[in-house]
Amino acid sequence: MALISKIIFFFTLFILLSFCSSSQCIKSQNDTANNKSKIKISADELFKKDYDVIYNISKEYALCIERYDEDRSKKFFIYDVSAGTVIFKDSFVLGNVVWSSDYEVKLTLHPGIITKDENNVKPKYIYNVLTNTKSNPQ
């Protein structure tokens, strides 16, 4: 009899823990969907074209970049996922913007013809999302 009550106890505990973990999973999925919709609203306000969203490694920030258009500057913004706000926005012509580390975004311009030395092109600036500062590399 004691064995049956232990089995029932552990079975009930297993079921209870299963429900708790699945509710956390659903909450996480809802948070992700909510963040994506907030980013979409901000992107729709700023961009007139399609855009790409690139998260940093920790997924705390999102870099939203307007898809390339040869006739005008390309816009981008950095979105703080936890705060739900745009923390930085800028635009450029002929260049690219990428995450250079988990908390730094690098903007590099490519004026004229790109040569095989394109890896040696110095960035225009590096933006740090933690300190909200731009630095010009030497």
Ordered list of secondary-structure elements with their pairings:
Layout: H1 2-46, E1 51-55, E2 61-66, E3 74-80, E4 85-92, E5 95-101, E6 104-109, E7 125-128, E8 133-135
Antiparallel strand pairs: 1-2, 2-3, 3-4, 5-6, 6-7, 7-8
> Quick one: how many beta strands?
8
Q: Give the low-confidence spans.
A: 22-30
The structural class is alpha+beta
Radius of gyration: 23 Å
**Largest beta-sheet details:** 4 strands, antiparallel
Distance between the termini: 77 Å
Q: What proportion of the residues is helical, as a percent range?
A: 25-40%
Shape: elongated
Mean pLDDT: 77
Percent of residues in β-strands:
25-35%
- Contiguous helical run count: 1
Question: What number of domains?
Answer: 1
Assembly context of the chains: single chain
Q: Please write the string of helix (H) and strand (E) elements.
A: HEEEEEEEE
